[in-house]
Amino acid sequence: MIYEEGEHEEHMINNTVHVTKGLKPTDVLLDNQANISIMHLMLLKNVRPAPKKIVIKGVGGPQLIVDQVGDLEGFFEVYASEHTKANILSFAGIEDMYKVTYKRGAMFIVHMVDRDVKFKRKENLYMADWVVDSYTHATVQENALVYMKEEYVGQKRYMNRYALVGTHPPTKPCTC
Predict the structure, then answer these.
(1) CA–CA distance, 88 with 86 (Å, rounded to integer)
(2) Is the overall model pTM greater than 0.85, yes or no?
(3) 134 vs 114: which has the higher pLDDT
(4) 138 band by pLDDT with thresholds 50, 70 and 90
(5) Which residues of the chain form CATH 2.40.70?
(6) Could you tell me which of 114, 103, 115 has the C-alpha nearest to residue 152?
């Protein structure tokens, strides 16, 4: 392809993703090597023409020309394409907006005002099913991953003591 000067901008996404065939259309990858975000049209609102076309390049050279943007609810404007092989969120863009915590080997959690979005490790990538994970609350097991192991083990030991004697832990401090 030959491009005229000023006709487009080039952006790099480190897409050495070998599992794109296994990704669902609603899976979103949190990528610390991406300098832009791109999503499928179905996950966006207010899709419109981009001010300027971009060419998204990866390891294999030019891959996708994108000329649309859309709004990712709760986040920011992202590039939009119905041909993207993966939905990519730039980690830096997310980190600029929200607190992000990390549980080594398990997940990144983006702490939004009204919810937490968990990008769980799968196939050496951190991803969230946008339809499911972006609007769910943490389960007890997921919350346990966020706490220090000692805190979790201590709390579990505390609860087991009451289970052994067949009672529940007190809900209020003892005023004995």
Answers:
(1) 6
(2) no
(3) 114
(4) very low
(5) 8-137
(6) 103
- Which token pair is 94? 């997310």
146 or 120: whose pLDDT is higher? 120
The closest alpha carbon to 39, from 5, 68, 7, belongs to 68
CATH class of 8-137: mainly beta
Q: What is the 3-state secondary structure (H, E, C) of the chain?
A: CCCCCCCEEEEECCCCCCCHHHCCCCEEEEECCCCCCEECHHHCEEEEEEEEEEEEEECCEEEEEEEEEEECCCCCEEEECCCCCCEEEEHHHHHHHCEEEEECCCEEEEECCCCEEEEEEECCEEEEECCCHHHCCCCHHHHHHHCCHHHHHHHHHHHHHHHHHCCCCCCCCCCC
pLDDT tops 80 at residue 162? no
- For 127, the token pair is 């991803």
Yes or no: say if 10 and 16 are a contact pair by the CB < 8 Å rule: no
Q: How far apart are CA 133 and CA 29, in angstroms?
A: 12
Neighbours of 26 (CB within 10 A): 17
CA angle 137, 139, 142 (to 5 degrees): 110
